[in-house]
Amino acid sequence: MTDLNTQxxxxxxxxFKSAGVYCGIKKPGLLDLALIVSETEASVAGxxxxxxxxxxxxRWSKQVVAAGVARAIVANSGNANCLTGEQGExxxxxxxxxxxxxxxxxPQQVIVASTGVIGVPxxxxxxxxxxxxxxxxxxEGDDRAAAEAILTTDNSVKRASLEVAAGAVxxxxxxxxxxxxxxxxxxxxxxxxxxxxxxxxxLQACLTRVVERTFNSITVxxxxxxxxxxxxxxxxxxxxxxxxxxxxxFEQGLYRICEYLAKRIVKDGEGASRIFEVHVQGAADxxxxxxIARTIAESQLVKTAIHGGDPNWGRIIAAAGRAxxxxxxxxxxxxxxxxLVFQQGRPTDYDERALIERMQADEVQIRLTLHxxxxxxxxxxxxxxxxxxxxxxxxxx
Amino acid sequence: MTDLNTQxxxxxxxxFKSAGVYCGIKKPGLLDLALIVSETEASVAGxxxxxxxxxxxxRWSKQVVAAGVARAIVANSGNANCLTGEQGExxxxxxxxxxxxxxxxxPQQVIVASTGVIGVPxxxxxxxxxxxxxxxxxxEGDDRAAAEAILTTDNSVKRASLEVAAGAVxxxxxxxxxxxxxxxxxxxxxxxxxxxxxxxxxLQACLTRVVERTFNSITVxxxxxxxxxxxxxxxxxxxxxxxxxxxxxFEQGLYRICEYLAKRIVKDGEGASRIFEVHVQGAADxxxxxxIARTIAESQLVKTAIHGGDPNWGRIIAAAGRAxxxxxxxxxxxxxxxxLVFQQGRPTDYDERALIERMQADEVQIRLTLHxxxxxxxxxxxxxxxxxxxxxxxxxx
Lengths: 397, 397
Hints:
Oligomer: homodimer
Number of helices of chain A: 11
Number of strands of chain A: 15
CATH class of the largest domain in chain A: Alpha Beta
Structural class of chain A: alpha+beta
Shape of chain A: globular
Number of domains of chain A: 2
CATH topology of the largest domain in chain A: L-amino peptidase D-ALA esterase/amidase
CATH architecture of the largest domain in chain A: 4-Layer Sandwich
C-alpha cells in the first residue's frame, strides 16, 4: 500500500471524472453541485443513515445500491431535500433523470445525495442548470471542485487516495464533515471511487466493515443526520480482479482512507478545539466495547473536561458505568495520555500537574482496559466548546 | 389534596425531625451534613442510580431498602464516597453505625447518602463530629438546615410538602439538584417523609411509579451520576392506613411533590437559562414514547436551539427519527409553543416571526403527536449554554 495522497480524491482511480459548480443553491461564489462519473458501469456499495426521518435522496440511493450497479453520483449542498414531502421524492428522482439522460444510462444507475437546510423544497431550476453546467466541465486530474461543492460549514476540503495491490489498483475518496448546516443540521457524506474489479456484494461487505470502524466510530454531538451516506463505486478500469492478498490489501487501503477522512471530519467539527480518541480494550465482547467507547465519547461531561484540559477520570468511569454494557470497576484500568490514573477501584498516585500539562495536546488519548474479555473498540470525538453553543444557538439571531 | 407548601419539607409529616450542620467537608460556612430521623421504625422504599460504577453509600442503602425498615437518613455533601475502594465501603457502614448507636437501632436501619467529589476518601473525623453535632440539633419545625446541607452547586434549597386523604396524611420532601460538583460530577438526591401507615412493598411500588414519571424524566446533560438516590420513609404517625381512595390520593400527592422538585432541579441545572418540556403522545406504546421524548430532550442540537430561542423543528424531528423506536414522519405532527409547525411530512405555513417571539419564554413546550398508538410520555430538560461549557471545562483552570 502506498502513502496517503491528500491532494487528490475521486479522480485518482482510472476511468473516473468529476466536476463541481455553483448553480444558485448556496450564496454566490460557493460551489454547490458536484458530479462524479464513471466511464463505464461500476459496482456500487453504500452505507446510509439509520435515521427514520431520512431524506428523499437517501431513499432513492438505497434502491440504486440494492441493484448493485451505478454510473454516477450527483450531489448538491445547501439544501438537504429532507422533510419536503412528496415533492422531495419527485425532485430526487428528477436529479437522477437529468444526469442519466446525458450519460445515456437509466436513472436507476445514478446515486443522488443532498446536504443542507431541511424542510425547504429544492430549487429545481438551479439544480437543472447546475447539472448541465457540471456535465460540460467533467474532467480528470484535479478534483478540488467536486470536493468543495459538497461542503457546507466545513473549514476545508477532505480528500484522500492511495494505491493497493502493488500499485495495480487505485482508491480515492472525498468527504464532507459533521458541521451544522445553515440553519439546520449536520450531515456527513463520503464518496469513494476505485478502479478495482470487484462484485457489488463483495464491495458492500468490505465497505460495511470499514465504515463501522471509521465513519461510524466518530461523534461530534451525538446527533444523527437525516442525510448521511457513504458510497463506493468500483469500475474495474484497472483490469485487476480482487482476490486473496489483493483483496486484503484493498480493504486495508480503504480503511486507511476512511480513517483519515473520518478523523478530519471530527477535527473540523463545529467549534472543536481538540479531538480525543477513546480506546476500550478487554471488554466482554466487541459490541460491549463499542457501547462503552461511544458513551464516553458522547458524554457532555467528558467532552467539556477534554476542552478544559482537565484529567477528570471520574467523569470517564461514570460514563463507562452508565453504558448499556457490563463493567466491573474494580478490575478496570484507565490511562489518560499514557498515564495510569485509575486502578483497583480507586485513583492512582499520579502526578496531576504533569498530566494537566499533557492534556493540552491537540489529540488526547483515553484508554480503558476492562479485563473482561477480548472486546476492543476505538471512537473519535471532538471537545464541547462555548463556540459550539454559540454557533448552534444563535444562528438566526 | 392541599396546595403545595414549598417552605417546609421532611419535617411536615408527624414524627419526623431533621438537622443540618457544618462539620468540615465543604468550605467553612457551608452546611455539609444532614440527618432525618423518624421517632419510630418506618417503612422504607428507594430508587437508586443504575450506574454500574455506583458509590459505596448506594450499595449500603440498597440493603436497607431491601429489608424494608429504617429509622433515619444520614447524608453528607462535598464528598461522594465514590470510587474509593474498600475504604469507601467501610466508611459508609461506619456512618450508619455512628447514627445507629445514638438512636439505639441497628446500623441496617440507617440510610446513608453522599454527594460531591469522587475518588477522595471521606474525612471520617469530620463526619463523626458532624453526626454528633447534628444529633444534638434534631428538631421539628423548620427543616431548612437539612435541605441546605445536602446541596452542592445548587442555587437554592428545594423542599415541598402537602396533605392528602382529607388532611389525615402528610407528605414532605427535600431534594438536591443536578449541578456538577466541585470538581467532579452531578448527583441528584431526594428524601421523602410521610406519616402514612403503608407497608414497604406498597410504598416501593408507589415510589417506583412516581419516580419514573418525575425524577427519571428529567435531564440536564444526559450523564448518569454514581450517587443518585430517592428515599421514602413512612412512619405511620398519622394512624391512617392507606387503602382505596386514600392510597390513590397519596400517590397523586407524592407525584405532585416529586414533579415540583424534579422541575426545580432542571431549572437549577448548571448554566441553564430556560427549561423545556417534551411531550410525546400517540406513540406505539409508552416505552416508545419515553425513548423518543428522552432522545429529543437530550439532543445537543435541540438544547442549543432552545437556548437560542430558535423554532428549529428540523432538529426535533431528526432527534425523534434516531430514537430507538418506530416513527412515521408522514403521520407526525409537531407543535412548538402550541403552534403547529410540521405535518404530513413537511413544514406548515406558520408565522415564523411570531413563533420566535414566543420561544423566548422561560418554559418552552414541544409536543410531538405520532398517531401510532396510545403511548405518552413527558420529559423535562434544560437548554445548553456557553455558561454550562465554562463551568464544566474550566473548573480547575
